[in-house]
Amino acid sequence: MTEQQHDESKLERVIRKIKRCLALSKSSNENEAATAMRQAQALMHEYRLTELDVRLSDVDEVQSEKSRANRRPTWDRHLSGIVARVFGCRPLSYKHWCESSGRMIERALFVGVMPAPQIAMYAYENLLTKLTQARRDYVASVRSGNRRSAYSPETAGDHFAIAWVSVVHGKLHELVPRGEEDQALEQHPNGRDLVAVESQDKALIEQYLAGKEIGKPRKPRPIELDMAAQIAGMLAGQKVKLNPGLATGGETQLKLTGA
Q: Which of 86, 108, 196, 235 maximizes the CB count within 10 A of its CB?
């Protein structure tokens, strides 16, 4: 272990200790709470850490194991985008040289307050597997003549996939209500607290990314979609069933079934 790695490991242990102290500072026992807060403040002073530094340690990024040569298609990017919005993450694409394949590849990447990026990646990769297969089947049906399209089979497949994603977005949104956008939550006494947490998480993500070089997204070109492909994609998307599963360790995961 290098000296830098040792220092980083020590700092991580200190931050974990500060977090424990801050958690204890909310105790109903006033003496315990006061002692814990003093310890947290002393550690932050000793290691020159601010409360923002501590909160930023919860922000991380998760890369997809799935990759594509060069650039991910539009429908793939749309999928990672809708998943990221639902789970409060920032979707990015990570492009790099792959030694094993000897070419540039691109992966989806989610940035957020843990464990949100892990949950988002779980949902994205499962949905991507299903969408890729559904699109492949549709392309094959157009190529064989079982379905007609004014576009090439691959382009029709892209239009199919975009419609599929739009339908699944609604299903994800219903499964995981988003604070102020859900009327029931707005009427709940903790509704405002949830919105405040979401805003805070967004600010932390932006702070985390502030020092990183991020390319500007390309402006999407207006395209005329194949109506038949859209309808087929929407019908296929409707068959995808999302069921909330019990989480381990307080996390939320999804079980995805259907076509």
A: 108
